[in-house]
Amino acid sequence: MSGSAAFDAWSAGKSYEHYMGRWSRLVAEKFVPWLSPPEQAAWLEIGCGTGASTAAILAGAAPRSILSIDPSADFVAHARAAIGDGRASFQVADALKLPAQPASIDVVTSGLVLNFIPDRPAALAEMQRVLKPDGLLSFYVWDYPGGGIGFIHAFWKAAVEIDPDAAKLGEGARFPFCTREGLLALCREAGWREVAIAPVEIETRFEDFEAFWQPFTLGAGPAPGYCMSLTEDHRARLKARLAERLGATGPISLAARAWMVKASRRG
Ligand SMILES: C[S@@+](CC[C@H](N)C(=O)[O-])C[C@H]1O[C@@H](n2cnc3c(N)ncnc32)[C@H](O)[C@@H]1O
């Protein structure tokens, strides 16, 4: 694991749900209609986490089946228990070694995952390997360089004010390719065809500052992993700085923006 990935803590399903799953679900609900997938399709989902996007696909895409994989056994167990739909199955597996035969899947998808895979060209090639010739490739990632997830952007901004070394840990610095141009280049280099890219935005609303802060103390995900690695004194200073910036009382509403990508397989 590289230094900047040191806090990518992917476990503790309930904590992840509270920190991110509830928001990624809102993106997935907009992504599925944009994708306009065929009904009765065989889906493969990479990096299902706690099943936020799996649920949106089952609710909105009328799939025949969906195999959802994630390397975190904890997340897979959480998703399996939460979903309970006969069309869905879950497996512990990695994006670089998908548990599917060549040319066997109608729709390959992945929500908020690709940036966490160091060898992205290999991941895109593996997605193509399992896709049928007329199938649909798809994924979405947060628009990290463009502000991405407002509440995480605010967290890292305050963190860097207190500890300049935290600058290399923020997702904006780690994932500069998550722009329209960067994603287009990545897909073209992989030989994906008819690439379409569109932005999607959701509102993340917290009833007050404590509701904003509490998910960062749960340890699931890069920013919470960093937050819980700090000394108590350092964490208290970070919390105070954030309260100063965002307002210690009243609701907090911030935008979160992602890029949606769809394409067809190389002919
Ligand atoms: C931000 S979460 C997204 C989870 C879910 N798709 C969602 O929308 O809530 C990133 C997920 O990517 C998974 N992940 C990280 N590296 C992976 C890899 N090499 N192959 C597949 N999944 C991976 C993590 O375990 C985690 O569940």
Question: Features of this protein?
Answer:
single chain; Methyltransf_11; alpha/beta; methyltransferase; 7-stranded mixed β-sheet; 267 residues; globular; binds S-adenosylmethionine; Rossmann fold; transferase
Question: What is the third-level CATH name, the topology?
Answer: Rossmann fold
Helix content range = 40-55%
**Oligomer type:** single chain
- SS-based class: alpha/beta
Overall pLDDT, averaged? 92
Please write the string of helix (H) and strand (E) elements.
Answer: HEHEHEEHEHHHEHHHE
Low-pLDDT segments, ≥5 res: none
Q: Number of helix segments?
A: 10
Keywords: Methyltransferase, Transferase
Pfam families: Methyltransf_11 (PF08241)
Organism: Aminobacter niigataensis
GO biological process, one term: methylation
Draw up the topology in text.
Elements: H1 13-35, E1 42-46, H2 52-60, E2 65-70, H3 73-83, E3 88-92, E4 105-110, H4 120-130, E5 131-142, H5 150-162, H6 171-174, H7 180-189, E6 193-206, H8 209-213, H9 222-227, H10 232-246, E7 252-264
Parallel strand pairs: 1-2, 1-4, 2-3, 4-5
Antiparallel strand pairs: 5-7, 6-7
Bound molecules: S-adenosylmethionine.
Describe the structure.
This is SAM-dependent methyltransferase. InterPro entries: Diverse_substrate_MTase, Methyltransf_11, SAM-dependent_MTases_sf. It comes from Aminobacter niigataensis. One of its GO terms (molecular function) is methyltransferase activity. Belongs to the methyltransferase superfamily. The protein has one domain: Vaccinia Virus protein VP39 (Rossmann fold), CATH 3.40.50. It has ten helices and seven strands. It is globular, with a radius of gyration of 18 Å. 40% of the residues lie in helices and 23% in strands. The protein has helices spanning 13-35, 52-60, 73-83, 120-130, 150-162, 171-174, 180-189, 209-213, 222-227, 232-246; strands at 42-46, 65-70, 88-92, 105-110, 131-142, 193-206, 252-264. The mean pLDDT is 92. It is an alpha/beta fold and 267 residues long. The protein has a seven-stranded mixed β-sheet. Helix 3 (73-83) links the parallel strand 2 and strand 3 (88-92). The longest helix is centred in the first third of the chain and has 23 residues, at 13-35. The protein starts with 12 loop residues before the first helix and ends with a strand. Bound molecules: S-adenosylmethionine (SAM). S-adenosylmethionine (SAM) binds next to helix 1 and helix 2. S-adenosylmethionine is lined by residues 10, 20-21, 24, 46-49, 52-53, 70-72, 75, 94-95, 111-113, 116-117.
